[in-house]
Specification:
eight-stranded mixed sheet, alpha+beta, binds fe (ii) ion, 568 residues, 7 helices, binds 2-acetamido-2-deoxy-beta-D-glucopyranose
Length: 568
């Protein structure tokens, strides 16, 4: 079997907020007996929740060994990596103690240096790079809600790195002998005949529970080279004021508070919890609704923006931390401009991700982001996006290729993996289960408009919900888990969903399929958004001849470009 080298793009666009694009080289080998999307559309399959499991678990306590602060003074902790440009990497960490309570005083970020010492040999740090640091506060003008101010958050961008190379690094402040232990990372390789497979873990709605622990241990076992977090990261906003009853009780502890407290030390706990993995494997984050975290003076997204380095400047997204819930038009234009730039002969794979799913047959969040789908779907289809990852719904679902609710062999494969294991429990109800069709007042989005609609064709014509699993839903299961995407060559990618309950069973996969592109068949011309594609009409007539070039140009560049912008 010929092993091919591939460049592909990851495009992450989140709730009108974030765009990240990455292209990288991948190599792999095919396997037999795994279904391919070419055999689809598949008959819908549902695997219901296994009643021998519990639907969720408690949050880990702040004194849990994986959450507890184990350093003192200005010693670095919560070390994390994120991809920057092709030859650069972000290193982020926190020094100094966070404070929470009635009297908090922000630390001075300039009181400690931001240095990364690194090199290609263990113990020999031939390079030193400095960066920037900041603190943020989460404040509430309401008695009983706790004010918070963070430790000093450092971000350093290492530049001029060699591809496919292992680096050893320490971070901290050398002048006060506060450098971390040595950590390592490997830069992504340049295309070449011996490139090992890139394994991209996709995780959504993780939280910080016993189930999140299983997920992260399982991800670690699966040895990813990059992690995509598709939003709703720590669930800090669900920790203290929910009365322990889960999502629906927004203010049990403080019913009259104008805003809901989000308990920021959870973010520090999350940073420590993730550190063993993300201090060696870069993690790209996109924000979900749990990152909004409103505080005094209408400020939002403070923690998310301060804690995570994202390559916004590198990618030319315009403004570094630009967010506003009503700048959708600008963001749309920016996304479109960016999609125009993608050269599919160089970058055959275009993978998009944002937090809330467009296609979702669970009762939870059913049609919640229908406005976004209506505004964006044609654009995505015209630009032949291959795969779309989302979270938000706390269960797994993989769609048959679908466009505008109609099966379409050239539409993206939509996958929901909001099953990371957060405190809100697994979603088990389907909108097609008797009595479980949400009413119009349910599932109101936290941002954007409401565009619920009844289907205009098909078996559910005139109705809001189907009476059985919709034909566009290929497989759904109410379990926690995560996915691994491995791009094999310019037309084949292997997608595997791993369930938490299978963590000790090596050969069990919750779901596995080859996602196969048909570039000639699905030329751009046939994807004009206004009609459903008839396979017979378009077969072999793809005259937009980028497609044949894809296989030839697969080794052009490593080019990891990550785009990130905000503009909700
Ligand atoms: C890609 O891999 C698949 C599965 O291994 C194989 O059938 C196909 O021929 C390969 N395509 C190319 C262009 O190498
Ligand atoms: C979540 O974790 C708890 C505690 O480990 C376990 O009992 C429960 O079955 C898990 N639930 C799922 C859905 O995996
Ligand atoms: C928290 O910060 C807000 C905004 O600065 C302030 O109004 C409030 O009094 C502080 N709360 C406490 C308990 O100090
Ligand atoms: C939409 O469907 C629901 C039932 O699913 C029905 O009650 C409602 O009248 C329909 N609305 C319209 C405008 O047809
Ligand atoms: Fe969410």
């Amino acid at each position: 079997m010929s092993a091919d080298l591939v460049n592909y793009k990851l495009l992450l666009w989140v709730g009108k907020m974030t765009l990240i694009i990455a292209a990288m080289a991948v190599l792999g080998n095919g396997q037999k007996s795994i279904p391919t999307t070419l055999e689809g559309p598949f008959k819908p399959v549902t695997r219901r929740f296994d009643p021998s499991l519990r639907r969720g678990s408690d949050d880990l306590g702040m004194d849990h060994p994986r959450l507890r602060r184990t350093v003192s003074g200005y010693f670095p902790e919560q070390i994390a990596l994120a991809l920057s440009a092709p030859t650069s990497m972000w290193v982020s960490w926190v020094t100094g103690g966070a404070q929470i309570g009635t009297h908090v005083t922000a630390l001075d970020p300039s009181s400690v240096a931001s240095e990364v010492w690194y090199g290609k040999e263990s113990g020999k740090y031939t390079n030193k790079q400095t960066g920037m640091s900041m603190v943020y506060s989460q404040l509430y003008p309401y008695e009983g809600l706790l004010n918070y101010t963070s430790g000093i958050i450092h971000h350093v961008r290492l530049e001029g790195l060699e591809p496919g190379t292992k680096y050893y690094y320490k971070c901290g402040d050398g002048s006060i002998l506060a450098l971390s232990e040595e950590h390592t990372f490997e830069t992504l390789p340049l295309p070449g005949p011996n490139v090992y497979p890139r394994r991209i873990a996709v995780i959504g709605d993780l939280g910080l529970t016993h189930n999140s622990t299983t997920t992260i241990d399982h991800v670690t076992q699966n040895d990813p080279s990059l992690i995509l977090m598709v939003g709703d990261l720590s669930y800090a906003n669900q920790y203290r004021t929910n009365g322990g009853k889960g999502a629906s009780c927004f203010s049990c502890a403080f019913p009259d508070a104008p805003i809901r407290e989000t308990y920021q030390p959870r973010w520090d706990g999350w940073g420590r919890f993730m550190e063993p993995l993300i201090s060696r494997v870069p993690m790209m984050v996109i924000e979900g609704n749990h990152e909004i975290e409103p505080q005094a003076a209408g400020v939002t997204f403070k923690s998310y923006l301060a804690r995570f380095a994202v390559p916004s400047e590198e990618s030319g997204s315009g403004s570094h931390f630009y967010y506003s819930f009503d700048a959708g038009g600008a963001q749309y234009a920016w996304l479109m401009k960016d999609l125009e730039k993608v050269d599919r002969s160089v970058t055959p794979w275009l993978v998009a991700a944002w937090h809330p799913p467009w296609y979702n047959s669970y009762s939870s969040h059913y049609q919640e982001f229908e406005c976004m789908r209506q505004q964006m779907e044609t654009l995505l289809n015209q630009h032949r996006v291959d795969i779309v990852f989302s979270g938000h719904v706390h269960a797994y679902e993989r769609m048959n290729r679908v466009y505008n609710y109609m099966l379409n062999p050239c539409a993206p494969v939509y996958i929901t993996v909001g099953d990371g294991g957060n405190i809100e429990q697994v979603d088990v109800d389907h909108a097609d289960d008797p009595g479980k069709c949400p009413s119009p007042g349910d599932n109101m989005p936290e941002f954007g408009g409401v565009c619920h609609l009844n289907f205009s064709s098909g078996p559910a014509k005139g109705k809001f919900c189907w009476d059985w699993q919709p034909e566009w839903s290929a497989f759904r299961e109410s379990s926690f888990g995560h996915g691994i995407l491995e791009v094999i060559n310019s037309t084949y990618a292997l997608w595997t969903w791993h369930r938490n309950q299978d963590i000790f069973k090596d050969n069990v996969k919750g779901d596995q399929i080859y996602i196969v592109q048909q570039p000639e068949f699905c030329s751009r011309a046939t994807r004009d958004g206004s009609r459903s594609l008839d396979p017979k009409q378009s077969d072999g007539t793809g005259s937009d001849s980028l497609a044949p070039l894809i296989a030839l140009f697969v080794t052009v560049s490593l080019a990891i470009s990550l785009l990130h912008g905000l503009g909700i």
